[in-house]
């Protein structure tokens, strides 16, 4: 395969990864972060980008090492825990959080800015997920075409907004941030995009696409994914940086109570008027639809596989759409509130197992995986309960707590203890 062909594939795949990662949360969180971080907007942006783009890239490479197989990624902690964790991850990007958010965001950023609040959210999400069902059960090339056209269009639209906001700032950041631990907040909001889980959910699709392009050797696949992933992450970082900065320029206009989904819409209107706001609303709505279709398909494939094909793909699509439509009626803010406690517990063990994949040839003992992942869940659960259970308050004083990684040091210690115990290694396929 020629270098010219490889370079073209890398850029093509890089833009595809960007489109896969860039969804509703990627637009909602950075501008709001800029508002509450004020003069420390860059610190918030750094935390957000690390937890979103950084972990997503790591997960893409990890899933490549596992040939796109979720159970191989999580299998070393045992079959039942692996199923539970993978199920939790897929449900987060599926009907529980991310897919409903696409419907809620379409209403709040696509419908409300144009039609106001006269049209009930229930009607909008029912239509939105009916379209998702139709276009997911019977895939059409229309979706591929829309996705290929829409992503560049959305990037151009956002770039125009950002450049306009940089050249002619709407204001200056507040003197001090509205929150403490700005970097930690960036990390937590980066978790909220759940792009790390998206990488896991579509892992098999990524590998199949590479194979169809002629990249059949594992080293080739990993090399292409790393380079394509870097391109996607650089693109994400540039957009995030611009959006976070735009938020900081209106931090004297809005406070913490502002509706997150409305920030970028309001900024666009101030910079480019009603026409800019309407164009953004339409582009965001279509982007949310393509994201919903892609994630619904990936979730339905996983659920059907989990049932050993006893439940058909079509029925799984129907379940996802009905559940997501019901959840979407809570609105973006309601979904964010529900997501926080779930992600606090689910993210750490997923990160631990993603990192350990890179050492799977060196670490022969399954106990390292079990001890490390188990400890991350324990510390994260204690962190979640610490506001209600004073005895757990000590976890907020652990190393790296101010960065949102208070589970890291205990997890490393637990992994070392697991190595000492020398648990018998099991073949992943039989785990």
From TrEMBL:
Bilayer-crossing regions: 12-29, 41-65, 77-99, 119-137, 149-171, 191-210, 222-243, 278-300, 312-332, 338-359, 371-394, 400-421
GO terms for biological process, alphabetical: isoleucine transport; L-leucine transport
Organism lineage string: Bacteria, Bacillati, Bacillota, Clostridia, Peptostreptococcales
Keyword vocabulary terms for this entry: Amino-acid transport, Cell membrane, Membrane, Transmembrane, Transmembrane helix, Transport
GO cellular component terms attached to this protein's record: plasma membrane
Organism whose genome encodes this protein: Peptostreptococcus porci
Name this protein carries in UniProt: Branched-chain amino acid transport system carrier protein
Localization annotation: Cell membrane
Topology in the lipid bilayer: Multi-pass membrane protein
Coiled-coil region(s): none
Family: Belongs to the branched chain amino acid transporter family.
Domain of life: Bacteria
């Amino acid at each position: 395969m020629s270098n010219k062909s490889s370079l073209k594939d890398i850029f093509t795949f890089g833009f595809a990864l960007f489109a896969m990662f860039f969804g509703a949360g990627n637009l909602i969180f950075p501008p709001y972060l800029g508002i509450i971080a004020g003069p420390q907007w860059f610190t918030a942006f750094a935390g957000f980008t690390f937890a979103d783009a950084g972990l997503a890239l790591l997960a893409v490479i990890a899933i490549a090492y596992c040939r796109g197989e979720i159970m191989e990624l999580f299998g070393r902690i045992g079959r039942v825990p692996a199923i539970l964790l993978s199920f939790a991850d897929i449900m987060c990007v599926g009907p529980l959080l991310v897919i409903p958010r696409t419907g809620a965001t379409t209403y709040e950023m696509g419908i409300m800015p144009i039609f106001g609040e006269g049209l009930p959210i229930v009607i909008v999400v029912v239509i939105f997920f009916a379209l998702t069902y139709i276009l997911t059960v019977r895939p059409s090339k229309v979706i591929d075409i829309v996705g290929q056209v829409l992503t560049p269009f959305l990037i151009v639209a956002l770039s125009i907004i950002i450049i306009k906001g940089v050249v002619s700032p709407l204001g200056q950041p507040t003197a001090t941030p509205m929150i403490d631990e700005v970097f930690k907040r960036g990390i937590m909001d980066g978790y909220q995009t759940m792009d790390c889980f998206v990488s896991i959910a579509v892992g098999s699709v990524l590998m199949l696409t590479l194979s169809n392009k002629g990249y059949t050797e594992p080293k080739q696949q990993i090399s292409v994914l790393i380079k394509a992933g870097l391109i996607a992450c650089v693109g994400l970082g540039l957009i995030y940086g611009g959006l976070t900065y735009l938020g900081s320029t209106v931090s004297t206009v809005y406070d913490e109570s502002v509706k997150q989904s409305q920030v970028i819409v309001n900024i666009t209107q101030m910079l480019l008027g009603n026409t800019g706001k309407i164009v953004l609303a339409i582009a965001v709505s279509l982007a949310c639809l393509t994201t919903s279709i892609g994630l619904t398909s990936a979730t339905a494939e996983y659920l059907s596989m989990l049932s050993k094909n006893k439940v058909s793909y079509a029925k799984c699509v129907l379940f996802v759409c009905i559940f997501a439509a019901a959840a979407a009626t809570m609105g973006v803010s309601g979904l964010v509130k529900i997501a926080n406690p779930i992600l606090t517990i689910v993210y750490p063990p997923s990160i631990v197992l993603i990192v350990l994949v890179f050492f799977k040839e060196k670490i022969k003992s399954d106990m390292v995986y079990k001890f490390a992942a188990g400890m991350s869940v324990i510390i994260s659960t204690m962190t979640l309960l610490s506001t209600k259970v004073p005895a757990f308050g000590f976890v907020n004083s652990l190393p790296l707590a101010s960065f949102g990684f208070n589970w890291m040091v205990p997890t490393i210690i637990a992994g070392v203890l697991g190595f000492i115990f020398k648990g018998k290694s099991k073949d992943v396929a039989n785990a």
